[in-house]
Design goal:
The complex is a heterodimer of chains A (about 325) and B (about 230). Chain A has about 325 residues and is of the alpha/beta class. Chain A has 10 helices and 14 strands. Chain B has about 230 residues and is α+β, with helices and mostly antiparallel strands. Chain B has 7 helices and 7 strands. Chain B has a 5-stranded mixed barrel. The radius of gyration of chain B is 31 Å and the shape is elongated. Classes of the chains: A alpha/beta (about 325), B alpha+beta (about 230).
Chain lengths: ~325, ~230
């Protein structure tokens, strides 16, 4: 009997020690609490950089941070938000998948007292977010459109591959591009389809377009993943030399492809800059600051063969 | 025989049960369809319907706010002297920033003389001797956000949807193209005196600060006596 009692005592002590050590470890990691990083997809390296930078910066600011992958689908976003609210997170760094579909999720977080900071992608309400730090996609595509006109000398047939139709970046990019290109009547858009910001989907779309409309001079893609997909389809069709491809993002493979003369141009977004700003603003908000701007555009820059040496994937030399 | 009838009755009952279940599932999917196929164009037009009337907004902004704020533009001569002296100080004192990045804007006014006229622009000299070009006025298609961002009168945070904010820019550019430029283009000649107000977009890494490239808001060709 006394042996059993001694064993129970030892086990209880060990359990107590484990709990104490565990708690101390947890307290060190979550000194200021937990921050959730909700990213639209981890299937695209650009968003991996965005999400990991947000997580790392939050951790550097003293929080425990967890990345949630929405897989480019609104359904997981809703369940992520429910888990985040139930899990006692203090702030959400949010890269939405849908500008309208995400409003309700952000509202739920707001009602639960959790501030939401959008990164890169917008949601159509400033009422339910604390701040939105967004690439200035429209201005970027005005610049890209002017370069497109210059390269094509104001004439030719082109294809546009759009991103996700529910995302404002898709339309800001398209509308910025068309605000320039549509003023040149000899530039004809012969096809416009969604590639859902996805490389494989864009390749499939481009492949199908090339079968029905083989005679084209250029392709404008709403992001770099789709630009790479379109380029692959052009390679398969043996048209990569004659068709110029334009992207948007500043992803690693496109920067290399510009250096190699495969892709004509992209617009460099700065995912690290946006993620760090969002993480820092969340920290400032949680420490009592309340006068943060509700929207903060982040400029994007044209990258071509002429200036590609000034850039690195996802940013600028020396960033 | 009785066993056979019972078995047949059970089979019929099971069949009716399956039929009812299939019917119930069918009715459920009719009432609550799991997905709906929507053409891309329809989605886009729905989104546009939801957006506000950017054309009306731009019109009201132009008349009620922009034209009343022309006095706040910095004098071109003063700005260029400040830039020559210390570009960073000039940026601090006179530029309007827009978000995070290296692009900034000047809201500028002045009087000068037409040095030369090219395709899509007019070069302006601030001195009558026409020995240098300090300002270039854009006179063809207007692109970008110089006016929207340059005056400091509009704030992106006031727009819940950035597409609306961008559409305002497009409409302001259209107003420049239709109201400001046609008569100027028709009458402009080298040597004429001109009064101007406009906005310059400066991209720190790519654009020279002189001549200042302006998207005009007001252009007035002056008689020599003026």
């Amino acid at each position: 009997m006394s042996g059993i009692a001694r064993l129970t005592g030892i086990l209880s002590f060990v359990a107590f020690l484990m709990l104490t050590v565990g708690c101390r470890d947890q307290t060190e990691q979550t000194g200021q609490g937990k921050i959730a990083v909700v990213v639209s997809t981890l299937n695209n390296p650009w968003f991996v950089v965005l999400g990991e930078t947000a997580r790392n910066r939050s951790e550097a600011n003293g929080y425990a941070a967890t990345i949630f992958d929405s897989q480019n689908d609104t359904a997981p976003v809703a369940s992520h938000f429910e888990n985040i609210i139930a899990g006692g997170y203090r702030a959400i760094l949010f890269n939405p998948t849908d500008a309208d579909g995400s409003i309700l999720n952000a509202k739920k977080a707001q009602d639960a007292g959790i501030p939401v900071f959008c990164m890169d992608r917008e949601i159509n309400s400033t009422e339910v977010t604390t701040a939105q730090i967004l690439s200035d996609s429209y201005s970027g595509c005005v610049t890209l459109g002017q370069y497109f006109v210059k390269v094509l000398e104001g004439k030719g047939r082109y294809v546009e591959i759009l991103g996700l139709v529910g995302d404002n970046n898709t339309w800001n990019r398209s509308e910025g591009f068309h605000s320039v290109v549509d003023r040149y009547p000899d530039l004809k858009m012969v096809a416009q389809q969604s590639g859902e910001f996805d490389r494989a989907k864009a390749m499939e779309v481009m492949d199908s377009i090339l079968q029905s409309t083989p005679d084209i001079d250029a392709v404008f893609c709403g992001n770099d993943a789709m630009a790479m997909g379109a380029y692959q389809a052009l390679v398969s069709a043996g048209k990569e030399e004659e068709v110029k491809v334009f992207g948007f993002d500043g992803a690693a493979d496109v920067i290399i492809s510009i250096e190699e003369g495969k892709i004509e141009a992209t617009m460099m977004q700065f995912p690290r800059r946006m993620a760090e700003t969002a993480a820092d603003w969340a920290d400032r908000y949680l420490n009592g600051e309340r006068d943060l701007p509700s929207k903060m555009p982040v400029a994007v820059e044209l990258v071509t063969a002429d200036n590609v040496d000034e850039y690195v994937p996802y940013g600028k030399e020396g960033d | 025989m009785a066993k056979k009838e019972i078995r047949s009755f059970e089979l019929n009952r099971r069949f009716v049960g399956y039929l009812l279940a299939v019917l119930a599932i069918g009715i459920f999917f009719v009432l609550c369809p799991p997905f709906r196929v929507v053409p891309l164009e329809e989605t886009q037009s729905q989104a546009q319907e939801k957006s506000f009337d950017a054309s009306a907004f731009a019109e009201t902004f132009w008349t009620d706010r922009l034209l009343g704020a022309l006095d706040s533009a910095v004098d071109a001569g003063k700005l260029l002297a400040a830039i020559r002296d210390n570009p960073e100080n000039a940026r601090q004192e006179f530029a309007r920033e827009f978000g995070i990045g290296e692009t900034y804007y000047f809201f500028v006014s002045g009087t000068g003389f037409v040095h030369s006229v090219g395709e899509g622009f007019a070069n302006i000299s601030l001195s009558k001797s026409l020995d240098s070009v300090e300002v270039r006025l854009l006179t063809a298609n207007i692109f970008g956000n110089a006016i929207r961002n340059g005056t400091g009168l509009l704030d992106v945070s006031d727009f819940p949807n950035s597409r609306g904010f961008n559409a305002v820019s497009l409409e302001l550019n259209r107003l420049v193209e239709t109201r400001v430029l046609p008569s100027f283009r028709k009458q402009v000649e080298t040597g004429q005196a001109v009064s101007f107000v406009g906005c310059a977009e400066i991209k720190e890494d790519t654009q020279k600060k002189s001549p200042l490239v302006l998207v005009p808001i007001v252009l007035e060709l002056l008689l020599e006596s003026e």
